[in-house]
Design brief:
Elements lengths: L7 E2 H7 L4 H10 L4 E6 L2 E6 L2 H14 L4 H13 L4 H47 L7 H9 L3 H4 L1
Antiparallel strand pairs: 1-3, 2-3
Helix pairs in contact: 1-2
């Protein structure tokens, strides 16, 4: 019997999908990729269908939009089995969008807080440099007494 040469060994698949063998193994372990075993002499080879290249690209695309591998698994298998429920996918995608929007709002708050902190630290540095000629170091007690009491509204 002549072996089916359309199947890919892990190294070839990883190269064609622009990923690593470890990633392929991980995806296979999670059930995102299907493989078959082939005996060749005393060695056992794992082979992957060329469809796995497209699967890996879809996985990477879904990850880039915030989906976890667990979230991707059922949808991906349903897609390839011809059982994709569009209403369910629409609902899942809307939920992911809401989750990303919430994360975006949290990041916006963190950016604002960090910006305020930079402003406070820069003011302290300027004031300390004017008073002492050395704006690089400031002990905590001096900071509390001189600057933080006046800037408490920025830190709340």
């Amino acid at each position: 019997m002549v072996p089916d040469t359309s199947f890919l060994l892990i190294g070839t698949l990883a190269k064609k999908a622009n990923t690593t063998k470890d990633t392929v193994r991980h995806y296979e372990q999670l059930g995102l990729l299907k493989s078959r075993k082939r005996q060749a002499g005393s060695r056992l080879y794992t082979e992957f269908h060329p469809e796995c290249i497209e699967r890996i690209r879809l996985i990477k695309s879904a990850q880039a939009t915030g989906f976890t591998l667990t979230e991707i698994k059922d949808s991906l298998n349903d897609y390839y089995d011809g059982q994709l429920d569009i209403d369910l996918q629409l609902n899942i995608t809307k939920q992911k969008l809401a989750q990303m929007q919430e994360q975006q709002a949290n990041i916006t708050v963190m950016v604002e807080l960090l910006s305020e902190r930079i402003e406070v630290l820069e003011r302290i540095k300027v004031l300390e440099h004017v008073e002492t000629g050395n704006g690089a170091k400031l002990d905590i007690e001096t900071c509390r007494k001189k600057y933080l009491q006046n800037d408490q509204s920025h830190l709340d």
